[in-house]
Amino acid sequence: MDLLAIVILNYNGKSYLEKFLPTVLAYADGHAVYVADNASTDDSVVWLQTHFPEVRLIRNTKNYGFAGGYNEALRQISAQYYCLLNSDVEVTSGWLVAPLRLLQQHPQIAAVQPKIRDYNYREHFEHGGGVGGHLDFLGYPFTRGRLFETRERDQGQYDTDEPCFWACGACMFVRAAVYQELGGFDADFFAHMEEIDLCWRMQLAGHQVWATAGSTVYHVGGGTLDYLNPRKTFLNFRNSLAMLYKNRPARNLYGIIFLRLVLDGLAGVRYLLSGHFALCWAIVRAHFAFYGQGRSWYRKRRALDALRKQNKPIRLYEKSIIKAYFFQRIRKYSELS
Predict the structure, then answer these.
(1) N or C terminus of the chain with fewer C-beta within 10 Å?
(2) Is residue 224 part of a domain?
(3) The last residue of a domain, from among 195, 219, 243
(4) For residues 235-267, b (16+ Cβ closer than 10 Å) or e, as one string?
């Protein structure tokens, strides 16, 4: 069994493999590097086999999305720890040391993410990474370094290793046994929010999630779906509701879902007024899809009842990040109370 398997999920990402895979191999420190291909229709696989035959290739039979694609691939890999790495991430020398140290020295930690900066604006934190993700009580994510669209410049203000609520799937180190015990990502999510859902389940099971500033990578972001892509908007809003419904305690659950309906409606109106009609319609479709899959989400919620009853500590931000950002004008994570 390998100590660590670095696993890159690929779907029509030849250009990213060309750009970033050589650096991953240079800084892999002897650990196994895999590319799990989600039935790409470009020539990614042929290019990989020709130029990097030492990379271990797993070929999924179809595009299972981010969630299902990793689940399919990781069933075939024997390692103590996985590093799930987006194809559009530039790694740096020594990037493996700090995350592995945390996992090896602290058995209660199930997932770790490094500091994630923006590849194009290299002094700023990346939108979906920062130095550890958090979640407010309504299910809105933010990070140590990014609140909504405001990304801070990295000036060392978050250079500590700390527990967080979720580790970013762009570069996520996971204890393999915990991943498999919990069933991995929820494949019905397809993509987006699946890492937050998994980290929530990890905490329900009594594990911890951490972020370390001792490792830095650079993420392009939006490599598969652009941030203003209606498909991305649909998946984010639908999966956010599903994640809340699956994992939150019963107290006030339906009131929170109703409040999300109202707030998501306001987000749709905001898109409408700004001329993004497709994004507004994506939010509407996301809600109908969530309610339409109600029976499936209900079964998954029931499956987590036993874990919820154990009352393990969960690191939710029990205030509203919307109120803090839009009404109190807070723009930095460090200013949150």
Answers:
(1) C
(2) no
(3) 219
(4) bbbbbbbbbbbbbbeeeeeeebbeebeeebeeb
